[in-house]
Amino acid sequence: MVGLSVALTGAFGLLIGSFLNVVIWRVPRGESVVRPPSACPSCGHPIRRRDNIPVLSWLILRGRCRDCSEPISRRYPLVEAGTGVLFALVALRFGVGWELPAFLYLATIGVALALIDLDTKRLPNAIVLPSYLVAAALLGVAALAGGQADSLLRAAAGGAALWAFYFLMALVYPAGMGFGDVKLAGVLGMYLGWVGWGALVIGGFAAFLLGGLFSIGLLVTRRASRKSAVPFGPWMILGAAIGIAVGEAVWATYLGAIV
Fold it and tell me: Mean pLDDT over residues 118-140, rounded?
């Protein structure tokens, strides 16, 4: 039963990943994600329904447009497949319960925001700000249905704490921390706080650790300078994923080692 639920959730993730390709391209440009229908960026021909099956259509077409034969970026099937895998992992982590929709939503916006930030160095308000309401609603339903009022209160405190920490960082070092990161921190803090205080601490720390190591790597390989702008959103999201996945266990191990 668990395996079937994970597989079905992963398949649903493939469909969401296909939609995310549209979101990642259009939202930064202020375009509708509903109309017009998806089309080939080279010839402009609308994509047929049979050519819009996640991953499979790209493989059948050998990565080329059916009409103009221009290459279709590998990024499209990778986003679809990656979202499917991520959805399956979320289902494996939380099971089929009231928490699952909330964390699937986080996975959805996480993929979109990470790639948009890499492309444009922006975290669009159109995605981040509504996520506060969606997260509060979904986690609120999970709390009411599962009798987890303490988790909901911890989520609110976690969101406020991480937002305040990033806001302070932005005031102290505005060149290295954008306000888009501050707004995203509040959303991520809600989810990390729901899981636990250990998840919040480890998830927040992991973002700076991974982002710092990546930046050092760029400097060492001379692919960036000290003045280069490096998007931090992807590392915040990856750090949150680590906190959600193993944060509580890592924090418990750490406390056990120092006590």
Answer: 97
CA distances from 172 to 34, 51, 132, 224, 233 (A): 40, 50, 25, 23, 18
Q: How far is CA 163 from CA 140, 153, 182, in A?
A: 19, 15, 6
Q: What is the pLDDT of residues 44-77, one digit of tens each?
A: 788 888 878 899 998 998 889 888 888 889 999 9
In DSSP terms, which residues pair with 71 in a beta bridge?
64
User: What distance in Å separates the CA atoms of residue 84 and residue 112, rounded to the nearest whole number?
Assistant: 13
In the DSSP assignment, the letter for residue 121 is S
> At 221, is the pLDDT very low, low, confident or very high (cuts 50, 70, 90)?
confident
Is residue 38 within 8 A of residue 57, CB to CB? The reply is no
- Cβ-based burial of 256 (10 A; exposed 0-12, middle 13-18, buried ≥19): exposed
Q: Is 59 helix (H, G, I), strand (E, B) or coil?
A: helix
Which two tokens mark 118? 């890499």
Q: Write phi, then psi, for 163 (nearest 5 degrees).
A: -60, -45
Q: Please state whether the peptide bond connecting residue 71 to the residue before it is cis, i.e. omega within 30 degrees of 0.
A: no
**Alpha carbon 129 to its chain's center:** 14
Angle between helices 179-195 and 233-242 (to 10 degrees): 10
Sign of CA dihedral 11, 16, 19, 25: negative
Name every residue whose Cβ is closer than 8 Å to that of residue 91 and which is 6 or more positions away in sequence: 5, 6, 9, 10, 100, 104
Residue 224 φ then ψ, to 5°: -160, 160
Burial of residue 42 (number of CB atoms within 10 Å: 0-12, 13-18, 19+): middle
> What's the pLDDT at 198?
97
